[in-house]
Amino acid sequence: MALRPHRPPRPHRFDVYVAVSGLLGGLLLWGIGLATRPADDAIVLLHGSWVILLPLAVTAGCEVLRRVTPRTALLVGTAAVGLDLVTQGNLFTVLMYTDLMYAAVLYGTPASARRIPWVTGLLTVAGALVPFAVWREPEALLIGVAVGIVSFAPASTGLIVRNHRDAAEAAQLRAEQTALLAEVDRTQAVVAERARMARELHDMVANHLSAIAIHSTAALSLDDAKTSREALSVIRENSVEGLAEMRRLIGILRDGDSEPAATPTLDGLAALVAGARGNGLDVTLDTLPDSTHGQVPAPVELAAYRIVQESLTNALKHASPGRVTVSLAQRDGSITVEVTSPYGDRDGPSAPGSGAGLVGMRERTALLHGTFEAGPEDSADGKIWAVHVTLPVTEKDPA
């Protein structure tokens, strides 16, 4: 691919207007014969009115480049002003030079912006002290004043304006960064809230829907009035409870001020297991002593409850006939949750799974800096599916 030729930056339109205005003003003064010094002044070495036009034209040309190449424009402008000093002089040449000094500090490099005020300040002091020391006349101090007006004053003004501009740009950049960080935080908060609601929705509703799916399949496949009636009773109970949970969640999402239900705790595991038994699972529960429940933080209790709830839901959907065990223990500043169920081919009806339950359990465990393992294992009773979770009860000291 051919490289595009480098195009030099174009002069700013305002700079062109300034240059044209300065040139026309200088020509006007030259046309009416108005100069800054009389022809017989000792400093005038180049006589002739046309000589005044050369530094005027050069300085006007430098004004066009005051933003494009501020350093070069200042150097050339300084030479032009030096030439103007040995002529009768033109006021607009000096005025345009002060603008070149200002632009060199404002638009130049940071190094130039630091050095030019110092150099012009030293020249101002030297322009006042050296002539006074040579001539011993108070009027000699006016040379330093003139140098300060032409060089130091515009350079200092340019430095002040540049500092204000840089501060404004830095403030704008900080504001943009703050807005970006706020947007990132908002996005992360929305994503985290969506993930939380997804876990809650899955854990609370999936159990009821799984029971409905399994018992409806059993009712359709078995030609037995008693079995069908029992299945329909379970279906109705789970559908009512699932509908109530859905309504509560929808109310919270829609209104935001709905009264939230009580957060599940470890005390509710017995009722949870009883509901699983009502859905057809053979479940045993070995939970923590009642004296330890108040010592477990609420987030840990909620996570343990939801993990047991989801494990029972998975056992209802996928486990083979047999005993399902739920056990909780507290040791070494953490709570361990273990749920096991028979693993193998299932003869009866089952419900499809999406894997979201395992993802939700893993996310809950990770949020509390715990460990999560789930998969098939060998045991004395044969192949089982085991869920092992460890949830810290106390915060770990930072490393």
Q: What's the total helix number? A: 10
Largest sheet: 5 strands, mixed
Overall form: rod-shaped
Poorly predicted residue ranges: none
Q: What number of structural domains do the residues give? A: 2
| Largest sheet strand order | 1-2-3-5-4
Write down the overall mean pLDDT: 81
Helix content: 55-70%
Counting copies of identical and different chains, the oligomeric state is: single chain
Radius of gyration in whole Å, from Cα?
A: 44 Å
- The secondary-structure class comes to alpha+beta
The H/E string reads HHHHHHHHEHEEHEE
How far is the first residue's CA from the last residue's CA? 54 Å
What does this protein look like?
With about 400 residues, the chain is of the alpha+beta class. The protein contains ten helices and five strands, in the order H-H-H-H-H-H-H-H-E-H-E-E-H-E-E. It has helices spanning about 15-30, 55-65, 70-85, 90-105, 110-135, 140-220, 225-255, 270-280, 300-320, 355-365; strands spanning about 280-285, 325-330, 335-340, 370-380, 380-390. It has a five-stranded mixed sheet, covered by helices on one side. A hairpin with a 2-residue loop joins strand 2 (about 325-330) and strand 3. Helix 1 runs antiparallel to helix 4, helix 2 (about 55-65) packs antiparallel against helix 3 and helix 5 packs antiparallel against helix 6 (about 140-220). The two termini are about 55 Å apart. The mean pLDDT is about 80.
